[in-house]
Amino acid sequence: MMAQMATRILRGVERWYSIPLLLLLWQAAVGSGLVESRLLPSLLRVWTVLVKDTANGVLPYHTAITLGRAATGFALAAIAGVPFAAAMARSTVIRNLFEPIFFFGYPVPKIAFFPVFTYIFGIGSPSKIAFAFLECIYPIVVTAYLGFRAIPQLLIWAGENMGARPATIIRRVVFPAAMPGIFTGLRIALPVSIIVIVLTEMIGDSKGLGYYIAVSGTRFEYANVYAAILVIGMCGFVLDRALLSVRDKSVYWERDEEAIRF
Amino acid sequence: MKISAAAQHWIVPVALLVAWEVCGDTALLPRYLPPPSQILAALHEVAADGELLQAASISLYRVVLGFALGTGVGMFVGLAAGLVPSIRHLFDPLVSFLYAVPKIAFLPIFLLLFGLGQESKIAITAFSCSFPVFIASRHAALSVGKHLVWAARNMGARGSTIFFRVFVPTTAPQLFSGARIGLANSFVILFAAELIGSRGGLGVLISEGEDAARFDLMFAGIITFAVLGFAADRILMTIRRHVLRGQIIGTAEQLVR
Fold this sequence. Notes:
The structure holds two protein chains of two kinds.
Chain A: H1 2-16, H2 18-31, H3 43-55, H4 58-90, H5 92-105, H6 114-121, H7 125-149, H8 153-161, H9 166-203, H10 209-218, H11 222-250
Helix pairs in contact in A: 3-11, 4-5, 4-7, 4-9, 4-10, 6-7, 7-9, 8-9, 9-10, 9-11, 10-11
Chain B: H1 5-25, H2 36-48, H3 51-83, H4 85-98, H5 107-114, H6 118-143, H7 146-154, H8 159-196, H9 202-211, H10 215-243, H11 253-256
């Protein structure tokens, strides 16, 4: 019993020691005056800024805007992308028409088109949501498409043989079989949506976490920059965990062994 | 009438281009969407006076150096993390925490560290590139079958032979997919960094075109950047195909080409 607890604690320490270690190194570097304190504000200062801007509502306000935009773009891409991938996998005509758009368009750095988006959709939320949609739909469609394509024909034959109607086959065979692929795409797209929103907010906006970082940076308030980075990291981490647990519930028969888990 | 698959591939892109050109020529589109023919003319204009070549080579220099640095560091640390548990435990929490943070958020810090010139752009590109490479290399090193290593050792292979003949070939496919994501990241982060503030480079060419309301110039820069990103990916994939001859048959990647 005691030995078991000791090993569990030891494993916890082994897995998590790097974050306290890094914080300790940080504090030591600042405390000893080795690093200019403007570049690396003390942890206390970052913490004070984080608490202050959380309490007066500045950080929650910008975070809510960024997350709202990211969630909208991500959700739209998921709603449009998964059925589209299914259609592409099942119909030769749709596949032939749209395959080049997705497979040749995949490596194109779409960020280059962001200036055009700001002209079409305006500088505020719509252009950012539309851009997040564009960036998210590529990984979602491509991975879900590969997932739908990889369904063993045997499973479908088996279903048909047992007298299932096409609708039943799609609902009970095709979608479950493609589920791991769909979730892989969603897990790639989720951080992409946050990254893209913050990035575009840094390029030009008057609200959102990206704006907060850009403004704090130009004012040399680096403690605020670190505070915002912490907030984004936390949000991304929590959202990814949430998506992973949804995945584990809906794809209960197959664990994603590649995921970094704690 | 049956249209061949190859012809069907072209329908949507060609239709879009034609519609764009026709709508643009008949002034149906707003001024900020110049038709393709005008963009081509602008491309020719900046290509002729050397402005495009200069801007493109500056951007390309930054992206190539950043990518090479980021991939090198990411691969080295990632493989080490896959092989040595204590290194893995050191990096896992940090990487999974920072993964969803846009690396561009560190731009103010990189600007202060490396100044406003080339170095800060290259450094932040490398930084951003190293994350996906690290993750892929870590997974790759972890997924090398122990039996393969044992079998090689049993047959008397030395450490270096095991590394080059067993380890490298089994991890190579995943290392390449990591490098591919890293390459895409490099282009994205460099573009954002150039747009936010830089001297020289395609991002500057684009924002200059924007400021002067020369939207054809803006598009010329955008198209060049997109083509460079696409070409870089193709080059990496070609190298990959040569290195991995025979290893990608029958995998999902054949579909993606």
